[in-house]
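pipeline/complex-builder :: batch 7 item 3
reading input block
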Amino acid sequence: MIAEERIDPAKVTELATSLEGELARLIVGQKELVRDTVIGLIAGGHLLLEGVPGLGKTVLVRSLGQALSLSFARIQFTPDLMPADIVGTNVISEDTGRREFRYQPGPLFANIVLADEVNRATPKTQSALLEAMQERTVTVGTETRALPTPFFVLATQNPIELEGTYPLPEAQLDRFFFKILVPFPSEEELLEIARRTTGASITELEPVADAAAILAAQHVAREVPIAEHVLGYAGRLIMATHPDRTELDSVRRYVRFGASPRGLQTLVLAGKVRALLNGRFNVAFDDLAAVAPSALRHRIFLRFEAEADDVTADQIVAEILEKTDRAKAGD
Amino acid sequence: MSSLEAVVRELSRSAARSSALQYLEHAVLAAAAWVLAVFLAARVLPIEQVLRIAALGIPFAFGAVAVGWFASRPRTMNLMRTADLELGLQERLSTAWERRLADGPMDAALRGDALRHAAKVRLAAAFPVRFRRGEAAWIAILAATAIVLVLLPNPMDQLMAQRRADQAAQGRAATTIAAVKKKLTNSTQPAPVDPQVQKILQQLQDKVASAPDPRSALQNITPAEQQLLQLSDPKTPARATTAQNLANSLSGTNAGRIAAQAIATSPAGGAQSLRSLGSQLQSLSPQDRAQLAKALADAAQHAQDPAMAASLQQASSALTTGNLGAASAALNDLAAQFDSLQTQLTNDQEIASAINGLEASRQQLASQADRDAGQSTAPSGSPTTGSGSGQASGNGNGTGNGANGTGNGANGTGNGAGSGAGGGNGTGGLGVSGSGSGSGPAARSTERVYVPGQPVPGQTASDPTPLGPGQDVPLTPYTQVVQAYQQAALQVSNETLIPGSERDLIRQYFSSLSEPTK
């Protein structure tokens, strides 16, 4: 267990700036992606990165491991991946001439775990990951073991290859702090990627923070105050995602289930981190609005009509943000 | 900014300044709307002191808006929230104000950050002083409309003037009645019926003063006159005639000459003389007694009052038979009846005085009622002169009435059959004072009634004179001739000895003709 030390809020901003700067040496563009990743990191949440192959998802996560003095493990999820393959298993060992079962930890025992193409594993294996993400422990046999702190799961999935995949169930999606869409880079960024990756030199990242700094930053972030009316706005955003509690026609028509209370927690916590990263000591409406798409898009479950009309969760969230009054009295 | 309190003060001042202008516009708009509403109402309703009412509403509107402005002052938290939103302060001020007393790890930094950012902006910009053009345009429209309404002639002005004249006339009539009352009260010889007369006059005075118009007030006078007349004894004329006959009879006798003079002077004096005569019968000579008995018998024979006749006959018989005691008793009984007659005459004088006073009051009300009827009958812009009524007055049928009225033939001979436009209870006339009765369905007030006549000056082409079936003379709308008819009828009624109530019926009939179409 690493002791949490109290740090100045400005140090958190510095940490985030340093981390973003270090990642920018390897990741071209994708500033929003990097910012959301850092927010999730400081908030202590797990991230689900979704994008087509080749956009640098894996590179981003691996770079994050390099930029932080944290242990890093990568698990390539495949249909034949078993729970024991990720949580570890008891193996027979022969020490001092005596055979006995000894626990062999799996790759989950790392600070940063990259669950690559997480939707290709069977639900059984996904469930093993689920327990680790939620409880930050793994249970093998009768023994429950704590995972290292901090513990982040950064899962990736491909939105276009659906054959042979096992889409994550709603309960498991809800456990991801953010679902971040990895956009295709612009032409200029594309050219820069080509320049950086086709040369002889290989960029190596320097660690800018350790586990203690991350934990301290997480602690400081939770201390950022949020005013009641701002909190009320967050609550109204969540309520607006529910078809039976909203006044928005689109939500009533296209949404099957709205965001859970965990969505509100995510909104507020992510808002606090964003405020801190922006050098503020309070949560603003803009903070909530900025993190709302990443926090809510995987917590809003759409009806068939939405798919038929080509309506996405992001469009629903955008309309909710547009129609929800910030200056509503009586908060 | 040194503290959040200073920020709050600055924001409060700015908000008050900004909202004050808005509420001032509201107040001006409300005041303009009020004034316009009053002016519009004054065009459809008779409202006294329109300008004063309109002016009184202005401070009320400003006061109400001021109360609203004061009551709607934003709370401090709302000030901070508005400032955050308007100035882009990212909820720094509102969060800092909400946690101004908190002592968390970041609260001090939060307050410092909020104050630093507040110092960089102009806080007053959160509550800009804006002039709302839309509201200002409405104010201008309402004010211009109100001014136009003030400048244009108000159709209600004439009605208001008439109402004021009505009230003045009713007031004068009530004053006249009060003067009559006072005069009767101050009389040296109060009549026994004085309390009843006073009560009737007081009731009439109240009714006249509170009547809605002179015509309604007039309708109360006739019943009051009838009440007064009921106080009078109907036997009084007969008794007075009997007394006069007795005086005439006694004047030719030696013994009764003094009593005759006293009776001619007053019934009270006559009563005293008769008692004196009764006590002196013993001293009269037989010749004088016989002469007196004969005079009494003559008076009894011509007496119109049975009681007095009986007393006279009894006294005469007693004197003839030499029963002086019975004769004296009969004369005393006759004297008591003279005393009663004196009382009745006193009552009648008071009643007559009261009725005379009521007639003066009636004239005042009738004059105003006639003016009202003339104003409402005369077509606007083309006053009629009353010419063209000569033909109608010649045949004397003269009976036309509305719902319930009486007409008199102006001249000539009436046949008593109701004619004219409709007619409820019409009276034809014999000569100028004859009357008859007729009946027929009452004309509906919406009907347009025509009477034969020549086209009158001022008749417009748009109002042609239609000819009825079988008619070969042009017809004239009755509205153009009714005033002349009215003047003729009232003139004749004034020159004729008819009861005041009959004159009232004439006025009432013409007034009903001039009532506006419902």
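note: The first helix of chain B runs from residue 4 to 44.
queue -> next item
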